[in-house]
Design brief:
This protein has helices at about 10-15, 30-40, 70, 80-100, and strands spanning about 1-5, 25-30, 50-55, 60-65. The mean pLDDT is about 90. Strands 1-2-3-4 form a 4-stranded antiparallel β-sheet. The chain is elongated and about 50 Å long. It is built from 4 helices and 4 strands, in the order βαβαββαα. It has a single domain (about 1-100), classed as TT1751-like domain (TATA-Binding Protein, 2-Layer Sandwich), CATH 3.30.310.70. The chain is an alpha+beta fold.
Length: about 100
Amino acid sequence: MEFVRFDAGEILRKERGGQGPRLLRLLVGNPLIMVEMARAVPDAAAYAPVTILVDERADGVHLSYDSMVSLIAPYGSEAALVVARDLDAKVESLLKAAAR
């Protein structure tokens, strides 16, 4: 589910007289997954939904995101990490499919 999108490249284009990269930041996710993680680690709600960056460069379009495992690991909750690992696998699968 897409929650919101930001045209991050707009700021750079304004600075460069209308020329510049196209950067799109998407906040996407499933509210049920966020609830599942937040049960174990309430701070997880600060990291969900997931941020995905679509970045058009000279060598092509790049897709990146913040790994949920890397954000949740410091809290030391195995229950939240199980959900985060599953979420990362789903996001990576989605990005690979989008890149094809």
